[in-house]
Amino acid sequence: MSERLGARIHITGVVQGVGFRPFVYGLARRYALTGWVRNTSAGVDIEADGSREALAAFTAALRGELPPLAHIDQMTVRQQPANGFAQFQIVHSQPVPGAFQPISADVALCDDCLHELFSPDDRRYRYPFINCTNCGPRFTIIRDIPYDRPQTTMAPFALCPACAAEYANPLDRRFHAQPVACPVCGPHIWLEESGRGTILGEREEALQAARRRLREGQIVAIKGLGGFHLACDAGNSTAITKLRQRKHRPDKPFALMVASVEAAARHCLLDDNGRALLQSRARPIVILPRRPDSPLAGNIAPGQRNLGVMLPYTPLHHLLLEAAPDFPDALVMTSGNLSEEPIASDNEEARQRLGGLADAFLLHNRDIHIRCDDSVARPIALTGSASNVLTLRRARGFAPAPLRLPWSAPPLLAVGAALKNTFCLTRDRYAFLSHHIGDLENYET
């Protein structure tokens, strides 16, 4: 039998809220290691006992087989005597005074969850808050680090036995998925009439009532991932004119959400770069040339040759845009605010600020801790460029992922401009660029 050795491993990067501890647990089982893994406010710590060969294979796999959303900036491995652990465990998180840990951005619904969302035999069938370790809310629900459920806006929702079993099962896709929920124990949606607060429907009834109102040309305020949108039928010029008048936005382009890539191709000229950007995990608004034969209303983007288009990125969006013969394949999905104001993110705030803009409110009871606008990007083709994307607004899906610097910088604060503000903080080899803040001349911003 090979001599058992020990290793202590410290990892920094995007390693919380991305299924990293379950990933480590699975590798430890594969290589017959014992020990533990835990989150800290400085990253992830691992102690493991095993043979020299197994420990070497384990550390190589940590870098080579990362979960889809994880990214390692630095990994230190220190050999030590074996500790005699009996098994491998995920242990309680530990705060580290003065430390920091990059937080994952919010991530669009993954293909596995999308399949379950529309599978009648799945217990989360048509549940607007389905998620797993590979997708769902992160930045917008985190109150503090380390990233654990009690530190998020999901804390009020106690897990039902079925969700708790998934959360505790190392072989399940929702093992230690902090926002995990289901119709029994999680958040829910309802539809309210604007101004009166009358409940027009809950859960599936609310969804169908919202779709019916959109089909009839009404404006619906929809609580999403990082704030509210104002939505209407993108083929209904009368509804769009009404939205422009209420929002005091006479000519600025409105963003669209389309049901699918195929729908995007019906309205825009789409190349491989544009298609990839639309389908990326960040799901930004993508600036694309409008097709001359698109049936969408001309007053979406007056005088413009381009459209700003995005795909659904939450389960609620997928349900809202579910294909039906009498339902549009594109909705105007513009920020829930008056022109130049910050996006509304709280239910009561939205009722007060958007009551004169929307005919109805599609609400839910999962709080948004950090408001976050949609990102905006444009596919480009530059010879010799390392990137084929020009990011015009870095927000949902990108923020707060830091930019790694080629040198260690002193602590600096760059406060940005008064208009379209973002700010930047530096620490060591990281530059933390904020999400889009807005116009600072506005008091609410």
Structure write-up:
The protein is an alpha+beta fold and about 450 residues long. Among the domains are: about 5-90, Alpha-Beta Plaits; about 190-365, DHBP synthase (Alpha-Beta Complex), CATH 3.90.870; about 400-445, Nucleotidyltransferase, domain 5. Helices cover about 20% and strands about 25% of the residues. It is built from ten helices and 18 strands. It has helices spanning about 20-30, 50-65, 110-115, 160-170, 205-215, 235-245, 260-265, 270-280, 315-320, 345-355; strands spanning about 5-15, 35-40, 45-50, 70-80, 90, 190-195, 200, 220-225, 230-235, 255-260, 285-290, 305-310, 330-335, 360-365, 375-380, 390-395, 405-415, 425-435. The strands form three sheets. The protein has an eleven-stranded mixed beta sheet, sandwiched between helices. A five-stranded mixed beta sheet has the order 4-1-3-2-5. A two-stranded antiparallel ribbon has the order 17-18. A hairpin with a 4-residue loop joins strand 8 (about 220-225) and strand 9 (about 230-235). The termini are far apart. The mean pLDDT is about 90.
